[in-house]
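Email to the structure team, subject: Protein ZIP4 homolog model.

Hi all, the expression group asked for a predicted structure before they design truncation constructs. Nothing fancy, just the tokens so they can compare against earlier work. One-line instruction: predict Protein ZIP4 homolog, return tokens.
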Amino acid sequence: LEQCAIQLWNWAVTKNVDATISDNQKAKRHVACSLLHCCEPENPTEGVIRKQILMASKTGRTWLDCKNPQMADNFLSLASLEALYNQLTSKDEGAADVASSKADVEKDLLRILSSQAESAITQGNNQEAVVYIQRCKDMLLRVPKDTTFLSLMCYNFGVDMYHVRKLKDSAFWLQSYDIGKMNVKYAPGSDVLAKILRLLATVYLEWDCQGFQDKALSAVSLANKLNEMLESEASVEVCLRTVELLMCDDEVLAFEYLKSVCQHFESSPDQGAALVLHIELLLQRGKELLGKQKIEDIITHYTGKQLTPQALTKLHVILWDKAAKHFDTSNYSEALQWYNYSLSFFKAGQMEPNLARLQRNRASCFLLLKQLEKAKEAIKEAERCDPDCIFTQFSVYKIAVQENNVEKAEALNAMGRLSKSPVASEDRLLVSENAASCLFSLSAQIALEQSGQKDTARKALECVCNNSDDEDKILIALCLVRLVLPAAEKPDDELDVNLDILLSYVKMLQTLSHHSHMTAEQRTEEANWFRKTWNLALSCERYPDRMRDFFVLSYQLSQLCPPDRTLLMGQRTCLLMAAATSLELCRKSPHSAQIEELTQALEHILMCWEIGKTLKASSFPADPTDSLLLLYEFEARAKLNDPKVEMILESVLELENVEAKVLEAIALAMEPPAHFPLLCKKALRVALSLHKKQPQPDLAHCKCIHTLIKLSLPSGVSEVEAHVLKEVWDYYVEALSIIAAAPDDFPEMETLWLLTRAWNTGILLYSLAQYPEAEKWCGLAMSFIRHLGSLQETYETQMPGLYSEILDRLDKAKRN
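Reply from the structure team: attached below.
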């Protein structure tokens, strides 16, 4: 609400650039001020209080200028300075700082009291106005510079009373000219005093000619001295104040007198002040063409000495106000002309921030007029004058976007660096604490509107995020994800990069959401939308690591939603898929990198079990998920060499309808470096048994026997034991029976493998002088030859000779 109030106020301020105030502007100020007071915090800061006072006093003044004193009173009463005054006096800062701030507060208080007095006069409450003015008089010792202001206000009250024929009250206010005696240095000039005295004389005579004749004559005598002002070399300030006073009563006379003043000071540097006032008065009264002629005359005859710094500053303000008025009505050519007038008064090569601001304004006009090259020239000058201004870099960025110049769009980096420092006010606008963030947000909008430059917009939003609080960061993260999501969903060469970017944004969103003040409904709405990450995970088949991360993120985002059965099932599936992906990554990773993947997989599996317990407590029907979880947990623990694998295997075997392929997968999971041969063989034996129980068992293609033999065969001398050989022999007998049952279906290479391993075992036993066993195993190998297919002839040629040689050696060995 505070930001809305400030933006509305700034809008009203920028629209009000001349002497008239439209109903629209009154309404904007009224609403902005009311809105700011509605959102007042419990313990407002000094900055907030100052904004409230500024807006309330200005709004009250606006209503007063528009002849609505009742409405003005409401806002003037809101402009209470007590809270600010108390806050200042309670500070522990240096005495000088506190005194300075208190002086500012007292000056503001005098302005508010005088406005309340004016409102009272307008409503006919003369006595109430007297009370307010008396309080102002009491303050003049502390704010002496307002002496002239208060004197002129009392004079105006006197004029008002005279017009409504309240001569007694008029005389009272006009007698207040002696306020100037409190501080002669800041008292009104003699011309003003003469005007007051003449009117006072008139009031006396019309009120009671006989009773106040002497007072009237005294006042007239004093006033006549003003006729000698110009002849007596009165200062230009005195003469110009006289012009302003005359303008209230006789506009024609005022302009004539102003011309006389300009001619009188023609050879003096002070003439500039008179010229500037002439321009200001012409523009205030809608005489724009005459005003332009005056400005062009000054430019033509400008020598560098004609205008004082004060007059030049005032002229720049007038010119910029006119330019802003035309800019706001989209009359950019006219706005540019007024900015160019201002530029004419800067010297070549001059360096100052105001010139940079002017060039930025000119560049904005050029851009809207589609004059890109001229805009670039203006911004180049702005960079020269004030390169370390965030507004200058913002203008550089705007031009870069229009040119689709990626390198120049790096101005965002400079803006990010400059945003670390406080942002100064630009023109007359109130600059809020997050002004830099507003600029970055606007940068993103410009990039998107200009040919959809999404990468540049994304970079701008990242800068916004770095300069925002957590609540705003959530909205920005949502924008970033929505910006990158379409690119991440399309398969292309940049998918890898887009997925990384998207993943970082979603993680940021998930982290911020835990610390935000979002309502439960808001959390649910956004979290459900972002469960699109599930679809992203499924689309990442080529990138298993990202697939796993997106599944985990989908689970984490779902935690922001109220739990129900459907949500729990979705969470369990996310974790199950994440575990499966981690195991897949482990299988493809070098041994040194497997531990982390296995540990992550185990964490996801254990979380799945916990969710499963919650589901079962609500009478959830059994499903195949438990079997998968046991399988995944067994693999993870086996490869981590966790002794709990035996317990997991028992849990698998206890399942009602355990499948043979599950047990085969468990055996596969125990391949080196996860080596649990006894458990592996136990699983394989059960799997083989289950295969045999099938209505149409396909044992010929079953890998159980192969793996059992492979695990059981002795690999060295130390493993050759009778019970080991007996176990392997039984597996071989089983293999022969399987081959005999389906000779055409059994793979030939598998038969050759069985033959070779049996023969090698026989040779190993022969080397150990275990001749009977050696003859037995070599004979077993020979029995497989007849089951070979295309290789049978080759082995029938070679093997009998080798077998005969072995038998001969065995006979000799037995005899020896």
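DSSP finds 39 helices and no strands in the chain. The radius of gyration is 47 Å. Ping us if the truncation boundaries need rechecking.
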